[in-house]
Amino acid sequence: MEAQVGTPVALDAAGTRDPDGQALTFTWFSYPEAGSGMPTAPGGKPRPAAPRVVVENASGARATVVPKLPGVAHVILAVEDDGRPSLTSYRRVILRIRGAE
Length: 101
Description:
Blueprint: E1 2-4, E2 9-12, E3 24-30, E4 53-56, E5 62-67, E6 71-81, E7 88-98
């Protein structure tokens, strides 16, 4: 998806259903890709990078992602049922974020 710094992006998984009718738990999170260039401090120790996106309402079926920095961001949705054993399904949204205009 195309996105722009500062412009919220709505993500919606409200239509998600469990075939067995079990309750679902939603978790949205940003996933920094390996090899995306983690900054280092003097001495080569990694230092945390500023988050490229912020996920609001991360535990709901509908989330809002606010892009903070230009580049590529991966947002993951994990949906877990309450069965025994519980089953989890994942979906990924890739945002190509442009700078503010």
